[in-house]
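In the previous lecture we treated proteins in isolation. Real proteins rarely work alone, and many bind small molecules. This record shows how such a complex is specified: first the sequence, then the SMILES for ISJ.
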Amino acid sequence: MTELGTGQAAHAAQADGEVLAELRTLRASIDNLDAALVHLLAERFKCTQKVGELKAAHSLPPADPDREAEQIRRLRRLAEESQLEPQFAEKFLNFIVEEVVRHHKLIAAATKGAKADTAG
Ligand SMILES: C=C(O[C@@H]1C=C(C(=O)O)C=C[C@H]1O)C(=O)O
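The predicted 3D structure, ligand included, written as tokens:
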């Protein structure tokens, strides 16, 4: 490898500095977006917790496949419009819904147990 002249070395160091500055700026935005995602997910889970309690109280099934299919169709369309891979949007929703349904099953079991206890 050839040695860089003083001018070239200074130029390379400046370019590195600019690259690092851009990386830092982009990462600051990524950190803000990740924080927003966590907050959005926390709010979503607060809603789904209430849905789970409502369903358990009225003996409704924990999962609703028709509703899920409708949500997938909608999110795939929104993803396409936003230049996000629809397949990724579908996978992401399925990942969240799977966790929600797991919670709903636990709530249903706990509600059943509590009813059985009070039935004496
Ligand atoms: C939240 C619900 O329960 C489940 C979870 C869903 C979700 O996380 O969006 C959607 C449908 C159901 O399988 C619901 O029925 O609305």
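Summary for your notes: The mean pLDDT is 94. DSSP finds three helices and no strands in the chain.
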